[in-house]
């Protein structure tokens, strides 16, 4: 895997050469709302880029009008996937930036990015879990959606911190449970994991 | 002799089973396939180790459970469990909060879109 130049850095440098950035640079803002036109790539490509998904919160606006039916059915299955018909807040500057970045991806990076965008927790399973936890039969849709989103971001934090841990230990290869445990411990220290008032017994 | 031995073995295994069903719940893997893709997307290898995936799943289930318990505690004061309870719990974590807002806004839009679509369909059918 080549780690020649980070495509984000390359794209941002390119942009900064052309014009001063009107909006805060990608690294600076928390609310990076980006719309991109995402069409599923034809082939699976392998990606190896480190990114911060927290910074790049992207909701996707696909070109209007086409394939309404398909999307409305698909919408039920994968909310978090790339297809929304209607532009939420179309920010052309950020869209353009995103397009520049995407066009420079290697095959590796594209496939990884695709997995990042498309993966999501299944709402049915999440609903079952929530019903088991709350004991109530009716869990409203927004609750499920929010939980899926929060859980996905939490996985992201875990995996990224685990990679950081691996870097510190100069390990390589797939992530091992010891890295995840260390990453979980660190997240707990940061306060990102809700603490139980009563410690969990008999797991 | 063999009968009593078998009976003893059966009863001991039964009691063991009863004991294990009371205390720790068996977690059938809920999210394994999606988790593999997700971990790849966030930086792991294309095929993450199965024990890693299992551990991450356990952690995520515990996280969602704890979060939901806390939200319920807040929600019972009000009545039902609402989305706002979760949003309140997430308030310190800006990226998550913004992402949730985005998701909810998207859901609203899709709802509107679907309503508009149904209305259009009715118009078309009524014209016929």
Structural summary, described in words:
The complex is a heterodimer of chains A (203) and B (128). Chain A has 203 residues and is mainly α. Chain A is 50% helix and 2% strand. Chain A has a domain at 139-193: Histone, subunit A. In chain A, helix 1 (7-18) crosses helix 3 and helix 6 (141-169) crosses helix 7 (177-190). The longest helix of chain A is centred in the C-terminal third of the chain and has 29 residues, at 141-169. Chain B has 2 domains: 30-91, Orthogonal Bundle (Histone, subunit A); 92-127. In chain B, helix 3 (50-78) crosses helix 4. The termini of chain B are far apart. At the A-B interface, helix 2, helix 4, helix 5, helix 6 and helix 7 of A face helix 2, helix 3, helix 4 and helix 5 of B. Chain A: Its main location: nucleus. Chain A: Residues 1-82 are annotated as: Disordered.
Which oligomeric form is depicted? heterodimer
- Using the coordinates shown, work out and report the CATH topology of the domain at 139-193 in chain A: Histone, subunit A
The rounded distance between the terminal residues' Cα atoms of chain B is 84 Å
How would you sum up the global shape of chain A?
A: extended
- Tell me the strand percentage band of chain A: under 5%
Per CATH, which architecture of the largest domain in chain B? Orthogonal Bundle
Architecture blueprint of SSEs:
The complex is a heterodimer of chains A (203) and B (128).
Chain A: H1 7-18, E1 33-34, E2 57-58, H2 68-77, H3 92-103, H4 107-118, H5 123-134, H6 141-169, H7 177-190
Parallel strand pairs in A: 1-2
Helix pairs in contact in A: 1-3, 5-6, 6-7
Chain B: H1 2-22, H2 32-42, H3 50-78, H4 83-89, H5 94-127
Helix pairs in contact in B: 2-3, 3-4
Main location (chain A): nucleus
Domain TAFII28-like protein (chain A): 101-186
Family (chain A): Belongs to the TAF11 family.
């Amino acid at each position: 895997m080549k780690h020649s130049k980070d495509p984000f850095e390359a794209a941002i440098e390119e942009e900064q050469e052309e014009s001063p950035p009107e909006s805060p640079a990608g690294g600076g803002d928390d609310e990076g709302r980006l719309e991109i036109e995402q069409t599923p790539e034809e082939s699976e490509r392998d990606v190896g880029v480190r990114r911060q998904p927290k910074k790049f919160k992207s909701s996707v606006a696909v070109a209007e009008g086409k394939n309404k039916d398909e999307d409305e059915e698909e919408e039920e299955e994968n909310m978090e996937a790339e297809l929304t018909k209607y532009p939420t807040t179309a920010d052309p500057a950020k869209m353009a930036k995103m397009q520049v970045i995407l066009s420079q991806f290697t095959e590796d990076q594209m496939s990884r990015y695709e997995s990042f965008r498309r993966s999501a927790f299944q709402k049915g399973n999440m609903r079952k879990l929530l019903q088991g936890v709350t004991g109530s039969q009716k869990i409203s849709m927004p609750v499920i959606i929010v939980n899926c989103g929060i859980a996905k971001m939490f996985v992201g934090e875990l995996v990224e911190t685990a990679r950081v841990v691996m870097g510190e230990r100069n390990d390589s290869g797939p992530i091992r449970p010891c890295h995840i445990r260390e990453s979980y411990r660190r997240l707990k220290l940061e306060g990102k994991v809700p603490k139980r008032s009563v410690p969990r017994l008999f797991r | 002799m063999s009968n009593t031995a078998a009976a003893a073995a059966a009863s001991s295994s039964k009691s063991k089973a009863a004991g294990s069903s009371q205390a720790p719940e068996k977690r059938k893997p809920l999210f394994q396939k999606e988790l593999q893709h997700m971990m790849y997307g966030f930086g792991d290898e294309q095929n993450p180790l199965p024990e890693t995936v299992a551990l991450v799943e356990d952690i995520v289930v515990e996280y969602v459970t704890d979060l939901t318990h806390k939200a319920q505690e807040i929600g019972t004061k009000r009545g039902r469990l609402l989305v706002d309870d979760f949003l309140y719990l997430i308030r310190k974590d800006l990226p998550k909060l913004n992402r949730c807002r985005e998701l909810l806004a998207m859901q609203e839009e899709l709802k509107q879109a679907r309503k508009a679509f149904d209305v259009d369909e009715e118009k078309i059918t009524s014209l016929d």
